[in-house]
């Protein structure tokens, strides 16, 4: 609750309260079990994938380094969001400090676009492997991956860091109850006593610039890939190419679909329950993280073989 210096001079709040599912409190009960299972699955699967790629020498290739980066991003996103949500569900620990709230906001706003950008680099990797196979070994190298990682970190940190900074610099002198399970920028900034127009406009521009451009380039890459695959005369080569790209495309499609659904439900919040965007926001931090390593493990033969080799060594 807000603290007061005296009856007429309020001081700024030092903590927030996360108020999940105001209109549907029963959701916390039935959502806690599948959410905890998804969290354990995401953590276990991503850690297994990271260990496999790290220890198996045959997987020390550019594509698998990018998959490792994706797993690292998923792990950080899950650890930043889901444990706090489960603590609210199970123990009613709704309070979150001022600094912790804006740190969570920074991670969410930074790492989700990083994940989108990683998908873009992976799509470019598949484009080069299938459309320009002769140039692939000379272009997609370890140095290329290192430069791509630096680009992903620099681009997204530079453009998204102002979002939590703008929010943290606002004055919070009244309400401190966030109508959300997480410290989403729009949910937090609307509690401020100051104008938040600049904050909202900047987030909208950055979100559509980063995620929108990534998705357009990703789908263009796969259009070119499918055109080349359809022209392949050897059925086995075409099947292998489709299988290689299939897992990537499925995950990218799911990532973009759930994100677009969240955006549109948030825009149409007068027509849908305000708890729906909150639910989608929470799920978007755990479902892709649980699916990514499973799809790669099941559909990528090299990773599957690497996991079996490690299991045999363990025995």
From TrEMBL:
Keyword Amino-acid biosynthesis attributed: no
Compartments where found: Membrane
PROSITE patterns: G_PROTEIN_RECEP_F1_2
Topology class, membrane: Multi-pass membrane protein
Gene Ontology terms: biological process: cellular response to lipid
Presence of the UniProt keyword Iron-sulfur in the record: no
Pfam family, one: 7tm_4
Residues that span the membrane, as ranges: 27-51, 63-90, 96-123, 144-166, 205-229, 241-264, 276-298
GO CC annotations, alphabetized: plasma membrane
SUPFAM superfamilies linked: Family A G protein-coupled receptor-like (SSF81321)
Keywords tagged on the record: G-protein coupled receptor, Membrane, Olfaction, Receptor, Sensory transduction, Transducer, Transmembrane, Transmembrane helix
Family matches, as InterPro entries: GPCR_Rhodpsn, GPCR_Rhodpsn_7TM, Olfact_rcpt, OR51/52/56-like
Principal location: membrane
Cited Gene3D superfamilies: Rhodopsin 7-helix transmembrane proteins
GO MF terms, alphabetically ordered: G protein-coupled receptor activity; olfactory receptor activity
Domain G-protein coupled receptors family 1 profile: 45-296
PANTHER family tied to this protein: OLFACTORY RECEPTOR 56B1-RELATED (PTHR26450), OLFACTORY RECEPTOR FAMILY 56 SUBFAMILY A MEMBER 9 (PTHR26450:SF414)
Protein name, UniProt field: Olfactory receptor 56A3-like
Organism annotation: Carlito syrichta (Philippine tarsier)
Gene, per the UniProt record: LOC103267046
């Amino acid at each position: 609750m807000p603290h007061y210096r005296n009856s007429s001079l309020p001081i700024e709040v030092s903590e927030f309260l996360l108020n999940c599912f105001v209109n549907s409190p029963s959701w916390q009960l039935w959502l806690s079990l599948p959410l905890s299972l998804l969290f354990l699955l995401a953590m276990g699967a991503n850690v297994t994938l990271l260990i496999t790629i790290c220890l198996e020498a045959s997987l020390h290739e550019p594509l698998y380094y990018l998959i490792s980066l994706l797993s690292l991003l998923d792990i950080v996103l899950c650890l930043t969001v889901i444990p706090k949500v489960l603590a609210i569900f199970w123990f009613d620990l709704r309070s979150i400090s001022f600094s912790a709230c804006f740190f969570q906001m920074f991670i969410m706003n930074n790492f989700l676009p990083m994940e989108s950008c990683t998908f873009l680099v992976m799509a470019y990797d598949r484009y080069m492997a299938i459309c320009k196979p002769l140039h692939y070994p000379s272009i997609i190298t370890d140095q290329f991956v290192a430069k791509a990682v630096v680009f992903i970190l620099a681009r997204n940190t530079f453009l998204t860091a102002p979002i939590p900074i703008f929010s943290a610099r606002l004055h919070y002198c009244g309400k401190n109850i966030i109508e959300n399970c997480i410290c989403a920028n729009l949910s937090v900034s609307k509690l401020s006593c100051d104008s938040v127009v600049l904050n909202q406009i900047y987030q909208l521009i950055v979100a559509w610039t980063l995620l929108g451009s990534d998705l357009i380039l990703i789908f263009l890459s796969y259009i070119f890939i499918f055109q080349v695959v359809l022209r392949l005369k050897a059925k086995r080569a075409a099947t292998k190419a489709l299988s290689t790209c299939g897992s990537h495309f499925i995950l990218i499609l799911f990532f973009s679909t759930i994100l677009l659904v969240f955006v549109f439900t948030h825009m149409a919040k007068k027509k849908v329950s305000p708890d729906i965007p909150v639910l989608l926001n929470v799920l978007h931090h755990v479902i892709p993280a649980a699916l990514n390593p499973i799809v790669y493990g099941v559909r990528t033969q090299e990773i599957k073989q690497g996991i079996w080799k490690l299991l045999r060594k363990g025995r």
